[in-house]
Amino acid sequence: MFTDESPTKPTLQHTVSRAQPVIDSLSLILGPIVDSNDHSDNPAMSLLHNQTISQDIMCRLRLATSGSGTDDLCRWLYDTFQSNIADLQLVVISYIPTLAGVYLSRCISSKETFSGFEAVFLTVYSHEMVIRGAEPCSIRIPNNIRIPGSAESGKTNGKGKATATEPDSIEAMVSPALEPCNTVRATKRGLIVSVALDLYYNNISLMPVCSKIEFCEFCIIWAGQGELAGAERLDEEEDNAQEEEEENAEEKEENVDKKKEHKQKNDRCNQVPLPWELFQSVLRILGHCLLGPTNSKELKEKALKAAKCLHARALRDFDSKAMLASRSLVRLGDMIEEPIPELQPSEITADPSELEALRASIFSK
Asked: What is the C-alpha to C-alpha distance for residues 329 and 91, in angstroms, rounded to an integer?
């Protein structure tokens, strides 16, 4: 006897029933705005693509008080990723650009601990370590520098000895094997964040556009070409306070000193260390934003600007690997902006005299 019920329907209902309490707990942090997802067939995916909620969470993660061990939002992100509900894990992954951007910038400009941010990164790191199984991540690159004739098997040289066969591809390691890590040390910070960015890249086709644009903006900041929005707001507040207290010379001088001190902090914040394992993860994401399928012109413009800023940063740092990789991405981006026109068959004309001269030279040999 056949029924109309799909065998996957109970599984979907079970997933929704597990995800709904987690989503409801977010309303305790953000407010009743999350209630708009109650009537969705898949509340987790609705939450992922809800721009209003996404912007609210991104703004909260940028607050000066965010990232501490008592941050409720970081706690929610940590618990949500630990729930092992795939759709909800995608929601957490979509905020990795904001987490990485704020965390890396503040680690340089502040001596405070950001255990809230680090807890999220460590749980993502542990998740990836289990999936990779203590094996390094590697890719195979086509070998385009083969010696002519060496690819033929059984080829011998003049002395009767067989020559070595050149492989068709070369294996290159992208990421080393991950080791257990319970704390985020300064020497391991770049690797741990890069693992989270790799997970973001593996799911980038499912990420909302606003998350990708956020990532491009932070890349510009890391390259030393921008500032955090919070820093800009603080500068405006200091300027307003300075105008109101012009009559008091001492207070005015103090405001100027504070502004200079804050500018120095911003300069240090812009010099975020970009080791190679972190730099290549960043370029992979930018490459998808720039060359991948998207209808967002803003995303492509932001990605190209970020690639150019990172290339300038690599030139300043004299990092040869970063220079070559970022330059290649910038050139690809420029080719998209100014595509090479294709010749039409009707535009290709041949001179009969040149053809006769070419034919004569061939038969004369």
From this structure: 28
Flag whether pLDDT at 81 surpasses 80: yes
Q: Give the domain ranges of the chain.
A: 7-133+197-207, 208-223+274-342, 229-270
Q: How many CB atoms lie within 10 A of CB 321?
A: 11
Q: Identify whether the C-beta of residue 87 lies closer than 8 Å to the C-beta of residue 48.
A: yes
- Report how far apart, in Å, the C-alpha atoms of 88 and of each of 79, 120, 215, 247 are: 10, 14, 20, 55
Sign of the Cα pseudo-torsion (91, 97, 103, 109, in order): negative
- State how far the Cα of 44 lies from the Cα of 37, in Å rounded to an integer: 8
Rounded to 5, what percent of the chain is helix, strand, coil?
65, 5, 30
Element (H, E) at 137: strand 137-142
Q: How far apart are CA 127 and CA 148, in angstroms?
A: 45
Please name the residue that has the structure tokens 């011998």.
Answer: 156
pLDDT higher than 60, residue 162 = no
- Tell me the three-class secondary structure of 149-172, residue by residue: CCCCCCCECCCCCECCCCCCEEEE
Q: Is residue 15 exposed (0-12), middle (13-18) or buried (19+ Cβ within 10 Å)? A: middle
Distance of CA 300 to the CA centre of its chain: 14
Q: What is the pTM of this model?
A: 0.74
**Measured between alpha carbons, how far is residue 4 from residues 7, 16, 69 in Å?**
9, 20, 49
Task: Take residue 332 and report the two structure tokens written for it.
Answer: 């690809």
Higher pLDDT, 120 or 156: 120
Per DSSP, the residues of 250-301 read: HHHHHHHHHHHHHHHHHHHHH-----HHHHHHHHHHHHHHHHSS---HHHHH
Q: Is the pLDDT at 137 greater than 60, yes or no?
A: yes
Work out the end-to-end distance of the chain between its first and last CA atoms, rounded to an integer number of angstroms.
82
Surface-to-core class of residue 56, CB atoms within 10 Å of its CB (0-12 exposed, 13-18 middle, 19+ buried): middle
Contact residues for 218 (Cβ-Cβ < 8 A; gap 6+):
97, 98, 100, 101, 105
SS3 214: helix
Q: Which residue has the tokens 């542990």?
A: 126
Angle at 194 between CA 321 and CA 78, to 5 degrees: 170
Q: Count of CB atoms within 10 A of residue 216's CB?
A: 25
